[in-house]
Structures are given as C-alpha cells and as structure tokens.
Amino acid sequence: MESFLLKEWGIYIDKNWFNVFHYEFIEGNPQLFFSHPNSLILTESKAKKLFGKTDIVGSNLQIDSTQYIVQAVIKDNPVNSSFQFDLLLPIEVKLNTKTELDEANYWGNLSFKTFVKLRPETDAAKTSNKINALFKSNTYHQYKLTASLLPLKSMHFENDFPWSAFTHGNIRTVKIISMLAVLLLLAASINYVNLSVARAGLRSKEMSVRKIVGANRKQLFLQLMSESILTSILALVITIILVKFCLPFFNAFTGMKFTFNPLEPHLAMVLFGTLLTVIVLTGIYPALLLSSFNPLSLFRGTGIFQVKDSILRKVLVVGQFTLAVIMIIGAIVVYKQFVFIQQQKTGYNRSQVFTIQIPSKKLSQIDRENWAGFLHPIKHELLAQSQIKHVTQMNMESIVNYTYATAGGIDWDGKDPDYNPSYVDFSADADFNKIMNFKFVEGHWFDEKNVSDQKNIILNETAVKQFGFKEPVIGKRFKNGRIIGVVKDFYYKSMHEKIGPVVIRMEEPFISSFMIETYPGKATSALQTAHKIWKKYFPDASFIYTFLDEEFDKLYRDDKRTLSFTMVFCGISILLSCIGLLGMAVLASQQRRKEIGIRKVLGATVPGIVTLLSKDFLKLVIIAIVIASPIAWWAMSKWLQDFAYRVNISWWIFVVAGALTMIIALATVSFQAIKAAIANPVKSLRTE
C-alpha cells in the first residue's frame, strides 16, 4: 500500500463535511469514521480495486508507515463532479501536532478550502463582504489578502483554482469543442442540402409526373419531409451505436470517464434537439424546392422563390468551403502555438531532470537549524552516483508549474510602504544554476563560499520592472542583503499566465525537494539508485518523484487535446466539403455533357475542357477563402488570448490555407472533369 497516496485522490475533511455534501454510504457511517483519528473512507470502486469487495469495514490499510482502519465505503461520485476523491481522512490526521494546529489557525494560511452553506434567504453578496471584512481584520496589513465567496457551480471552470485538488475544466476549451461540433454539423447539413439540390434536376421529372397525375404540393412536401426525417433518424441510430463503440477509446484519449446514456433526460433532450435541428436544416428547403416544380416550367431551371438553382448551389458551396477554410486556418494556428509551447527555451533537458519530494512529516520532527545537517549527506550521496550529474536543493516542488506566490516580507531602498507586490519566492542552494543555466542580464550567480551571499538575492527582469528599480540595479539593498544579479525571464508556470516577479535566494531553511539532473541515457538507472538512497534515509516514506518532461506534458495536456480535436474536425470538414463539391461537379458534367461533346467535335482539348469545368468552382473557392479569412482571424485571435505568450497570426497562414484549399478543390473537381472530358463525344451527343 506504500504507493497508494501517490496515485489516488485523497482529502482531509472535518466533521461538518457530511452536513454540507451528500454521500451514499454502502458500508459504515460518519460516526464510525470520526470516532478514531486513524480512520478512513474509501469509494466503492477503490474498495473493490484494493480488497475485491465492499464489505471491508474494520479492515486495515497501511499508508506510508501508518496503519488506518476502513470505517466506511461510499458510492462513487458522478463522473462529471469536481469531487473525484477515492480516499477521505479525518483532518485530525493532518493536524496532529501543536505546530500544525498553530499554522492551520493562522489566518494567512491558504492551504485549506472552506465551503459555506448559506441559508435560502441569505444575500450572498453581503455575506461575502462580511467574510472579506473578517478576513482582512485578522491578517497582517502588508499582505493585503482578500476573501470572497465562489458559487459551487462556478468552481469547476474557475481558472484561479488550477492548483487545487479539485477537478477543474477549461471553459474556453469546452466552447471551442462545442463550436467545432456545431460547425461540423452545419457542414454536414449543407453537404446534404447540396446533394439534395444536385439531385433536384433528376427528381424534377418525378415530381412533375406526380403533379400531372393529381398529387398536390402538400402531399409532395410531406413525402419529401418523411424521407428526410427517416434519413435523420437512421443517422441518429448509427451515431448512437458509433458513440457506444468509440467511447472507451475516447475516454482513454481524454483521460476522463465519460458515460453515454441516450435515455438520460438531459442527453435525450440534446439528442432530440440536434435531430430536430438537422431535420429543419436538411429537409425543409429541398422539400419546398422539389414540391414547387411547375410541370410547364420544368426546363426553365427556376426553383422556389424564383431563384436559379445554380445560384443556390453556388451559395451552398461557398458556405461549405468557408467552414473548411476556417478549420484549416484554425488547425494551423493551434499547431503553431503548440509548437511554440514545445520550443520553450530552457537551460536544461527536461527528460534528464526529475525532482524528489522530501517528506514534510520527517522534517517537522527536526529543528529547522538542523535541516542542513540532515539533508546535506543525502545530497552528497546522490552526487556520488555515476549516473547523476547535478543535484540541488530547493523550496519548490516543481520548476515547471510553480503557481504559488506570496506578498510582503520584502523591502528595498525607496520602496513605497503601501506597495506590497506579489512575487514568487525561489529558495535554492548554489548548485541550482548548474541545472537551470540562467541567462544573466547583469551580475552573477551566488558564490557558496561567500558568506554574504546567504542574504543576497537575484531578481528576474519582471521583478526589476515591477519593483521600479532604476539603474544601477546591482548592489542595491534588498531586505537584509544586496541584489547581485538579474536573470532573463524564464517560464516557471504555464504560458497561459504572465511571468511574474521572481526573487531567488540561497537560504536553506525551507527546502522541500531535490532536483536531480542525470547524464544522457542514465535517467532510469539514476532514478533506481535515488530510490535506494531514499529508502535508506526515509524507510517509511513514499518515494514521490516527477520528471520535468512529464510535468510539462501534463501542463499542456488540454492544449494538445485541443490540437488533436481541431485536426480531426478539420479533416472531417474538408472531407464533407469535397463530397459536396464532387456532387456539384457530377451534376455540372451531366448537365453540360452535350456541350462538352460539341466542343470536342469542334476541336477542344482535354485540358481546355477540364479548365472550363473547373474554373467556375475555383472561383467559388476563392470567394470562400476571402469570406473565411477575417472570420478565422477573429476566432483564433480570441482563442490565443487565453495565452499570455502566444504566436502571431502571420499572413502566410492564410496563403497556405488558401493554397491548400484550392489544391483540394481542384483535385476533387478535376477527377470528374477529366472523366467528362475524355468521354466519347458521339455517345454524349446520341444520349437524349
């Protein structure tokens, strides 16, 4: 059970938790759970995974070196809930020392989340203001921290909580995927209407004959709508079957646990609404068009509302290719942004660096003055291994996604007493830069042999700007030391967020992890060696490690999925556009087969005929490119706003998208055009 906490979600809760949130208990009850500090609750799925059954109340489970008693088993939360916890522990387990209790009771401690259940008649805004006033009155003025209420239903998409243990979604990603789905549905509907209109000429004789023998327009309209409804229902049935089949693969791709029950009320409403929308989009106009044919004006080529059918077909082709061009431009921009993220410049190879978390419980048992004496032997033993290149001690758990910031506690000459900026506080030993390889704007790195450097600091460029330092920066007083260096800004969190001020110190009291760089090709063996050393010093603690490349991939996992989804939607959209265009080309070649035959008899060449049949369609594609370009620029500009650091939407993206669309359209049309051009003109002219 040693690795249990490394892989599963667990939270500490107090006695009011079950008064606020509802859980269905399969075995045990809350009273048993809170009767003993070493109690725990498991979810149904986790109990079955660990014990093979749910009847396990009273069973023991060892986590690290502590024995816990399973006091209850609860039903799993719904998969769309933010509360995805497999393990519940009493908060007394976390706060089992006076030091931990004092820290928890400190108003500036932000390690805990507090949920408040308001009475129905309560004014949430006024209550929020009162809580904020209470919070301010109990925190130090220089921190200027505020508190506010956040509705539970808004928590899932709250971007200010990306570091919390709760499952969060990205509302922008949801909107993008939803928009792509709507565009794809619209493209498919336009494609269906295109083909229906293309077949209008073939079915016009059928409709005219029916009218001649006595059918009225209402009867023809109902017949055609029935065909569309049956087609849409059949498509829905096939869709449900495909979703059921593909759902496991989709879950594996997204890393989530989506469920699909078409009878579930909300989903049933969505499916019915989509079906109704598709019927309206694909059925009404073709039915009106075909049922409106006048037998006497059959050969006038005039459809409903006296609009030429050819004009309508052109409008639909332009609309469909407009969507395709938007998708292509979107795919290029998303791919370019993702490549930009992947090419973040760092002074280290992410695949050769990993961090090891120092057990906080172990350090809490040692006086802070003795931490160095305890941790230094571990570092030296790690450095003695042939696979390991560098080892550094630091106060952060991650250098890739460090989202914690602090305020106050800093001072410099000329600082406004009321100015208390938030900043990132990096504390590491002198070997930190051997791995990071910072680029210095001016100054130098810490000298381990220089005692004064224990108080000196290094700033990043943003800190110098935001703190308002004037040249010369080097040598200015900062807190109890001096500024000895300024490094170029570096990414220590997601590129969705701006780089903030960073203060780097060489003090050791708050060390929480080791960062280890291995020699190329030695990462696996170095990890195994580090594990053995870890067990020597922390025999009862879990070996928690993370490779920087894994952290990096996790940080941008949603962006990578967005890219994949965009590529898939783009491919399907292009395919649908090509099918629609091919249908139009087939119809055009059929309508002009006699013209083509006459031209060939008079000496027209195959390339000339292909050009004749293709140029009209290519004109429509050019119009689509012109319409799509500003729309795509606007949409992708909005998407890129979610990134603090982003690529520019260059002009060449539109050129590439336009050229690619032209090539695809030309290849689609040319296939049918060549087929028509090489046909025997005698056969074409004989055909009535």
Q: What is the residue-mean pLDDT, rounded to a whole number?
A: 80
Tally of contiguous helical segments: 24
Number of domains: 5
Low-confidence stretches: 1-7, 301-308
Number of strands: 17
**Helical/strand content category:** alpha+beta
Major sheet summary line: 7 strands, mixed
> How much is the radius of gyration in Å?
34 Å
In percent terms, what proportion of residues is strand? 5-15%
What share of the residues lie within helices? Answer: 40-55%
Shape: globular
Through-space gap between termini: 82 Å
Overview features:
24 helices; 52% helix; 5 domains; globular; 12% strand; alpha+beta; 7-stranded mixed beta sheet; 688 residues
Q: Please, could you describe this protein's structure?
A:
The chain is globular, with a radius of gyration of 34 Å. The protein is α+β, with helices and mostly antiparallel strands and 688 residues long. Strands 9, 10, 11, 12, 13, 14 and 15 form a seven-stranded mixed beta sheet that branches. Strands 1, 2, 3, 4, 5 and 6 form a six-stranded mixed beta sheet that branches. A four-stranded antiparallel beta sheet has the order 8-16-7-17. It folds into five domains: 4-102, no CATH class; 116-150; 199-307, no CATH class; 316-341 and 553-688, no CATH class; 360-541, no CATH class.
